[in-house]
Amino acid sequence: MNLRDLEYLVALAEERHFRKAAEKCFVSQPTLSGQLRKLEDELGVLLMERTSRKVLFTPAGDAITAQARRVLAATKELRDIARTFTEPMSGELHIGLIPTVGPYLLPHIIPALKQHFPELHIFLYEAQTQVLLKQLADGELDCLILAQLDNMDNFGALPLYEEAMLLAVPAGHEWAGREQIRLDELKGEKLLMLEDGHCLRDQAMGFCFAAGIGEDSHFKATSLETLRNMVAAGSGLTLLPQLAVGEHNGDTGVHYVKVTDPRPSRTIALLHRAHSVRRPCFNEMARVISTLLTARLS
Question: How confident is the model over 102-129, as a mean pLDDT?
Answer without folding.
Answer: 93
